[in-house]
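Here is one chain, start to finish.
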Amino acid sequence: MRHLPSEELIHRIQHSETDYMQDRMKAIKGRPGNPEGVEIEQFGQALCLYSRTMPWLSFNTVKGIKSEDSIHLDAIIDFYKSRDRKFQFEIVPAMVNQDLLSSLAARGFYQSAFHNSMYMNPQELKDMPDAGIVIKTIDKDEFEDYARIHCLGTGLPDQGIPSVALNNRVLHSRPGWSFYMAYAGEQPAAAGVMYMNHSNASLTFAATLPEFRRQGLQQELLRRRIWDAKQVGCSLVVGQCAFLSQSHRNMETVGMKLGYVRTTWTEREA
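Its structure:
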């Protein structure tokens, strides 16, 4: 019989998601001169992430907001509007009440997307990684290959490869971060990233080059990362995916379960 996640577990999953993104942004901000213009601000429990040069919503987002943070909504909105930046609120069930949602709607925000947060105890992983698929951790001089997979696998243009390489290379020697590459023959074909802190592990990114999809590479990258988290004693692995996507199916296949479906709230266009 499957048990529903407890409120404590929901908060732990959410904290894991916030923890990795905050550490990533701190690392990017720490590059000499802060060339991406990263800013990190806290309003109550709400963590506000911003980048001047990276306009994508994942780098301009409010995470961890709770019901009691309603009093900070105007300050949060002003933080982004003063920087002329579109942004999003990530809303987690069990952390907000109707009053906060009504306050967002009154300020012109609407529910614009859904996203799954998946989890499992890695100690329950049954299958070892498939030795027939070669997966290696990435060395510092391999981040151009990683960035190529990152960009081409997610639909970003080639010109973004140098920037993606730089913004991920700074994580290579940072505590908790691990980068993985899966190969098709000798060709780097897919990549995955994991961040571990205390007993939590976050599967923070995954992508496959289009020509190598549907070959089981992402399932094995999942197993390898979960296996590594198991070996160091982690008791929680968390990952995100779109509902009913191939990533969702892969995560279910390796034993991950749905923790919650969080919603994204963005401002209506004028």
